Amino acid sequence: MADRRTNLLGMTREELTAFVRGIGESAYRGGQLYRWLYARGASSFDGMTDLARNFRATLGEVARVSAPEAVGRRRSADGTVKLLFALGDGLKVESVIIPPAAAFRGDAGEQNRLTLCVSTQVGCPLDCAFCATGTMGFTRNLTAGEIVGQVIAASREAERNITNVVFMGMGEPLLNYEATMKAAAILTDGCGISARRMTISTAGRADRIRRMADDGARVKLAVSLHSAVDATRTRLMPINRKYPLPVLMEAVEYYYRKTRQRVTYEVIFFEGVNDAAEDVRRLVALARRVPSKINIIPFHAIGFAHPGGLGATLRPSPRMEAIAGELRAARLRVMVRMSAGEDIDAACGQLALSGSASPP
After folding, report:
1. Which of 25, 94, 110, 266 is catalytic?
2. Is the pTM of this model over 0.90?
3. Is 117 considered catalytic here?
4. Mind listing the pLDDT tens digit for each residue in 273-293?
5. Does 94 participate in catalysis according to the annotation?
6. In this structure, is the dihedral angle defined by the CA atoms of residues 225, 228, 233 and 238, taken in order, positive or negative?
7. Which residues 6+ apart lie within 8 Å of 52 measured at CB?
8. CA angle, 223 as apex, 192 and 108 as ends, to 5°?
């Protein structure tokens, strides 16, 4: 029988205040619940020790705290941990805890952080050629509570606070805009993670990039770019048919004008696809249009997901390091991401529930 009690996880401070007032309690109780849920990560009302016993009893009758449950985990040789979460309806998603030493090569600032890569959808509808998640198809969006719950559970797993959150796991965050932005707001206000330490990565939903700007979103924006040539990007990322590069870049420029925030471009270089001299020249020209940085991501094999078409033929470019040097010589800011968790299929593009985790 379905549990009809209201799930409080994923509610904002204002929503919790309205909820407690609706059951005849004082408004300040909403703030207490908010702190217990997010600052302290409480998973039950019994543990909320500064709440009156009768209030806890009432909550138990009308409300619940239902979070994604970690049902498995795998640990990489480099310290990366992939968590498998079961959702309330039995569906599953993955998150990845990326340890300080496995973030970016040569970036001392990154070495002091603990990053969580969170999922926003079960599967993904975009079918990018280099991403295993796309081979799953799309099932549904996650709720704000299911997104925030991944962060709270990962902090318990790591036995320390998550300092950075990247919305780069399973799914396209901007296709689940409301829940993603609500989760980001709760993580900032409730969990104490600075908006400057959160990044939303999009495959190129130009309309939602504009909406981020109009809404005054404070989280960072990363664009999964992979080519500055329209035809090539369309081969790699079918979303480019709907939002081709001129449309995407107009949205990025609009975003920068409104927010004054530097944009990150994410690029994987594939042998014979996007690693020629002309590809690099076009990338340099595009990256100079607004203040930006380029994150170069090594290609991670996704053969275990049995991709079709172009995805089955992609190979990493042997010119990746040389291209990084060429981009730096063009006075662009360039970071080369490490292949964190590749041995457990937890690296960028590899999340697909394939051998995802061992039981806890």
Report:
1. 94
2. yes
3. no
4. 999 999 999 999 999 999 999
5. yes
6. positive
7. none
8. 55
